[in-house]
Specification:
The chain is 29% helix and 18% strand. By secondary structure, the protein is α+β, with helices and mostly antiparallel strands. It folds into 3 domains: 7-168, Nucleotidyltransferase, domain 5 (2-Layer Sandwich); 179-268; 335-383. The strands form 4 sheets. Strands 9-8-7-10-11-12 form a 6-stranded antiparallel β-sheet, with no helix packed on it. Strands 1, 2, 13, 14 and 15 form a 5-stranded antiparallel β-sheet that branches. α9 (337-354) runs antiparallel to α10 (363-377). The longest helix is centred in the last third of the chain and has 18 residues, at 337-354.
């Protein structure tokens, strides 16, 4: 074990907690940057969820967990984390005072704590003393690279003397995640029922339900009303579709083809909303609150060996399904022609204004184009 840091994902939400979507995004970025591990150790708490452990089916088996692509272990005590806690201590030492910090214990840095309280009351000067989320991601990544380059003496590797994490993982071979198993990296996994040729489900904190079309997509398949399925999708990227698996037991009358439980059926596309009259009273305050709770701003930085360029991702999502994601070394996704044209407008503006390192980029124009492109991509979710 190299004990190297592989990546970091600062996350900003209206409430100070991370969710299954944040966990899955971080795991997916790590897998795409470094490959699958032999063993993945997770804490308990929010890490004990259907994204990691899957869901229990009627026959007592579990479906959808990460255990299908690598061994998963949940640790119960700090001693089971294999040096992670001590690694956090050194990492915080390396990053100390790079930005205003309230420290690791209550009252450690009194002046910074006062700044933090003032920032919470809306004091702009106090806010400027702290890193924003992108600066925090870059600062953490720089400290992690320093950590990985520091030689260490290890009891298990005493014959090597002092050796750095970068040296130990220099010849590591990347184990790619099979394309047919990438759905396991999606955060929402649950059972659903086909109604009206679609599957529809709600996700906590999102103001709108998610509906995916299953009939009329493939001419050879038709699902009767009441057909039980297993689904996996990302609520922050519904336009990428929903993975559909058989949820009917072999002896069921609806399972006419005799498919096995959990057998892959199709990738169901998102069913766009059609305009219609709604005479029911709406609690707009409640919808706005759920929308704000679902909004998230996140960054990811992959920590690679010295001299190598790693994955870097900046992402922003709102509660209506709109997403803006920019980064380096990203895996391409399926896009419509309209989405591609929207992205090309942003790239063209960047090329036009970049010039040389000494010329300024017109950030106002880029932000305007990004806002325009965001609703060009997903017009069905525009509030």
């Amino acid at each position: 074990m190299s004990a190297a840091w592989l990546g970091c994902s600062p996350v900003g939400r209206s409430r100070d907690s991370y969710r299954a979507e944040d966990l899955s995004d971080h795991v997916r970025h790590i897998v795409e940057a470094h490959g699958l591990p032999a063993i993945w150790r997770f804490e308990r708490g929010p890490w004990e969820c259907s994204f990691i452990d899957g869901i229990e089916l009627a026959d007592g088996t579990r479906w959808g967990g990460l255990g299908g692509i690598c061994k998963v272990v949940h640790t119960f005590k700090s001693r089971g984390k294999g040096g992670i806690e001590s690694g956090f201590n050194l990492l915080q030492d390396l990053i100390a005072h790079a930005s205003a910090s309230i420290g690791r214990t209550r009252g450690e840095f009194e002046a910074a704590t006062k700044l933090y309280l003032r920032a919470g009351r809306g004091d702009d000067r106090a806010v400027s003393a702290f890193w924003d989320i992108a600066q925090a991601a870059d600062g953490l990544a720089a400290a992690m690279r320093r950590f990985n380059a520091r030689p260490k003496e290890r009891r298990a590797l005493a014959h090597l003397g002092a050796v750095s994490p970068d040296d130990l993982r220099r010849d590591a071979r990347k184990r790619e995640c099979p394309a047919g198993e990438r759905w396991r990296l999606l955060p929402i996994k649950r059972q659903a029922t086909v109604r009206g040729g679609c599957v529809e489900t709600s996700v906590n904190h999102y103001p709108l339900s998610f509906r995916f079309r299953v009939n009329g997509v493939e001419t050879s398949r038709h699902f009767d009303r009441g057909y039980q399925v297993l689904i996996a999708f990302h609520p922050g990227a519904p336009e990428e579709g929903c993975w559909l698996f058989n949820g009917e037991p072999t002896g069921s009358s609806r399972n006419r083809d005799g498919m096995k439980l959990g057998e892959f059926l199709m990738l169901a596309p998102m069913a766009e909303d059609a305009p219609q009259v709604n005479l029911a009273p709406e609690d707009r305050e409640f919808l706005a609150r759920k929308n704000a709770n679902a909004a998230v701003r996140s960054e990811f930085r992959a920590i690679t060996s010295a001299g190598k360029v790693g994955r870097s991702v900046s992402s922003a999502r709102d509660g209506w399904g709109n997403k803006a994601e920019r980064g380096r070394d990203l895996r391409p996704t399926t896009r419509s022609e309209r989405q591609t044209r929207a992205d090309e407008k942003i790239l063209e503006a960047e090329r036009r204004h970049r010039g040389s390192w000494h010329e300024e980029i017109d950030l106002d124009e880029l932000e305007r184009l990004e806002e325009e492109a965001k609703f060009t991509r997903y017009p069905a979710f525009k509030p």
